[in-house]
């Protein structure tokens, strides 16, 4: 079995629709795919409706968390999407993303960059902000108007942490996020702990990983495309010390990451152990 437990669609900051993501997953020879859009499960229904025969879909999410000013991401799987406390937190995160993104656009405009909210909304897929608007959408707008060479350059010059248009946003405490997902019947995995996203490249502190494990963390995504061999080995060792599972995933964002579904995968026994520990939802079989 080939299992990829981290992917994104155009519902958040990927470039492909949920339907296209599962089609690409089947073409890549995957048997199991988790759709883990940022702070939303809005793409799960579409992905499930277009699930090719033989492909299993794991309903998931990537929660935005923060620790001492740095980004920490938590992958959640097979939780109850109607859980009241979790639902309320997700709505608060999404609402603040809209406020943050609008403010960043205004800051760019104040500096003479002709980026508009309409451009950013078009990349996010909805002008009313119902989809999750993130910095990658602003970055793509910056590239479109010629203010950046590519998405990474947009982060490095304009919207990364400490850059001229950066704005902080509401994010969950990682330990609380673990407890929320477990209380909703889900399982959770610390995403790409050796590398952050954009300009936030601080490694997750080991003491934080330990506190997350104590709160119920199920695994660590040691095998990630951004991790080199030493980082993978170090976080595999850390997972063993904490008594949690090790996963591998592509963190595919469609065109933005070269459609790399399946470039890193999860052991079938690890996947089975995660499913066995979840009670909020079940995998969906095409």
Automatic annotation (TrEMBL):
<dbReference type="InterPro" id="IPR003141">
    <property type="entry name" value="Pol/His_phosphatase_N"/>
</dbReference>
<dbReference type="InterPro" id="IPR052018">
    <property type="entry name" value="PHP_domain"/>
</dbReference>
<dbReference type="InterPro" id="IPR016195">
    <property type="entry name" value="Pol/histidinol_Pase-like"/>
</dbReference>
<dbReference type="GO" id="GO:0035312">
    <property type="term" value="F:5'-3' DNA exonuclease activity"/>
</dbReference>
<dbReference type="InterPro" id="IPR004013">
    <property type="entry name" value="PHP_dom"/>
</dbReference>
<dbReference type="Pfam" id="PF02811">
    <property type="entry name" value="PHP"/>
</dbReference>
<dbReference type="GO" id="GO:0004534">
    <property type="term" value="F:5'-3' RNA exonuclease activity"/>
</dbReference>
<protein>
    <submittedName>
        <fullName>Phosphoesterase</fullName>
    </submittedName>
</protein>
<feature type="domain" description="Polymerase/histidinol phosphatase N-terminal">
    <location>
        <begin position="3"/>
        <end position="67"/>
    </location>
</feature>
């Amino acid at each position: 079995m080939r299992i990829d437990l981290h992917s994104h669609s155009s519902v958040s900051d990927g470039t492909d629709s949920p339907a296209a993501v599962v089609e690409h997953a089947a073409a890549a020879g995957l048997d199991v795919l988790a759709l883990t859009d940022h702070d939303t499960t809005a793409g799960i229904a579409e992905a499930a409706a277009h699930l090719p025969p033989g492909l299993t879909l794991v309903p998931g999410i990537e929660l935005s968390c923060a620790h001492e000013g740095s980004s920490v991401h938590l992958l959640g799987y097979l939780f109850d999407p109607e859980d009241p406390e979790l639902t309320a937190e997700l709505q608060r995160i999404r609402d603040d993303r809209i406020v943050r993104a609008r403010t960043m656009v205004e800051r760019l405009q104040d500096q003479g960059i002709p980026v508009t909210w309409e451009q950013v909304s078009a990349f996010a897929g909805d002008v009313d902000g119902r989809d999750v608007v993130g910095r990658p959408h602003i970055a793509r707008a910056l590239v479109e108007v010629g203010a950046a060479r590519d998405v990474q350059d947009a982060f490095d010059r304009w919207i990364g942490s400490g850059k001229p248009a950066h704005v902080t946003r509401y994010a969950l405490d990682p330990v609380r996020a673990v407890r929320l997902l477990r209380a909703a019947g889900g399982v959770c995995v610390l995403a790409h702990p050796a590398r952050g996203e954009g300009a936030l490249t601080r490694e997750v502190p080991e003491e934080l990983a330990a506190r997350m494990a104590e709160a119920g963390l199920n695994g660590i995504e040691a095998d990630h495309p951004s991790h080199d061999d030493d980082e993978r080995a170090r976080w595999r060792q850390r997972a063993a010390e904490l008594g949690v599972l090790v996963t591998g995933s592509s963190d595919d964002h469609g065109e933005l990451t070269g459609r790399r579904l399946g470039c890193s995968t999860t052991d079938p026994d690890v996947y089975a152990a995660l499913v066995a520990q979840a009670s909020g939802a079940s995998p969906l079989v095409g």
